[in-house]
């Protein structure tokens, strides 16, 4: 089993879910008392969010690159960044390490393609919904990405930063997200990407008429698959 390096804390609400999901998946696959070999470095989200707001992505990338270096030195064999938005600086991070990063958008696109869906709606922070670093990665797999309108993007982002990252789950916000999801479906979305790792705390499959792709769940399970690849090969020989 490979050792997974997790860059977490963005926010810790979703990092807790990553840790739980990864260990549950290892237990499900290996049984008994097995759990994941992983190292979690939890950053101070205040610093990251400040860099985001200032548009200082270089400083954010350097900070996370240093974190990734620490994880590699501690024994991590690959890295997962437990947030969608900060994949914007994945190239900054990659330059500082020699181990691979399992990209959240690649894992998500793979699962979408396996369902045969070709058009999805994307919910996330305004950075993720409006900038190309994430959408283009999904679309490079032949999947069309739709986003909410300008007003809705502001509303979706507000719920993330004023509620979900603080652990606040409100029915009124769930109802609002369901309305946004329905409009994306009306515009042709065949599935919905929860492109912020906290949204899955609010929105579940029963809240949508089309398949929900919870990126935190997908990413966590994909990391276990990667961690166990060598073990699977050994079992086959």
Can you describe this structure in just a few lines?
With 237 residues, the protein is of the alpha/beta class. It has two domains: 4-103 and 219-236, Rossmann fold, CATH 3.40.50.1860; 104-214, Rossmann fold, CATH 3.40.50.1860.
Walk me through the structure:
The chain is α/β, with parallel strands linked by helices. It folds into 2 domains: 4-103 and 219-236, Rossmann fold; 104-214, Rossmann fold (3-Layer(aba) Sandwich). 54% of the residues lie in helices and 12% in strands. The protein is built from 11 helices and 7 strands. The protein has helices spanning 12-30, 45-54, 57-74, 90-94, 104-115, 126-130, 132-139, 150-162, 171-186, 215-227, 229-236, and strands at residues 4-8, 38-42, 78-81, 119-123, 144-146, 191-194, 212-214. It has a 4-stranded parallel beta sheet, with helices on both faces. A 3-stranded parallel beta sheet has the order 2-1-3, with helices on both faces. Strand 1 (4-8), helix 1 and strand 2 (38-42) form a beta-alpha-beta unit. Helix 1 packs across helix 10. Mean pLDDT is 96; it is low at 232-237.
């Amino acid at each position: 089993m490979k050792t997974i390096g997790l860059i977490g804390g963005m926010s810790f609400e979703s990092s807790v879910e990553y840790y739980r999901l990864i260990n549950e998946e290892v237990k499900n696959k290996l049984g008994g008392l097995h759990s994941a070999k992983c190292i979690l470095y939890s950053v101070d989200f205040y610093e990251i969010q400040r860099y985001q707001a200032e548009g200082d992505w270089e400083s954010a990338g350097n900070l996370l690159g240093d974190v990734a270096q620490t994880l590699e030195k501690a024994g991590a064999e690959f890295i997962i960044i437990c947030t969608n938005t900060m994949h914007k600086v994945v190239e900054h991070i990659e330059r500082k390490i020699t181990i691979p990063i399992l990209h959240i958008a690649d894992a998500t696109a793979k699962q979408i393609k396996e369902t045969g869906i070709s058009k999805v709606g994307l919910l996330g922070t305004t950075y993720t919904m409006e900038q190309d670093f994430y959408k283009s990665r999904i679309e490079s797999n032949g999947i069309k990405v739709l986003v909410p309108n300008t007003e809705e993007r502001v509303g979706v982002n507000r719920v993330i930063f004023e509620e979900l990252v603080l652990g606040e789950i409100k029915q009124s916000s769930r109802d609002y997200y369901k309305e946004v999801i329905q409009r994306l479906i009306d515009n042709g979305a065949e599935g919905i990407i929860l492109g912020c790792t906290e949204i899955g705390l609010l929105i579940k499959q029963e809240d949508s008429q089309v398949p929900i792709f919870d990126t935190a769940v997908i990413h966590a399970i994909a990391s276990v698959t990667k961690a166990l690849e060598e073990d699977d090969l050994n079992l086959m020989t």
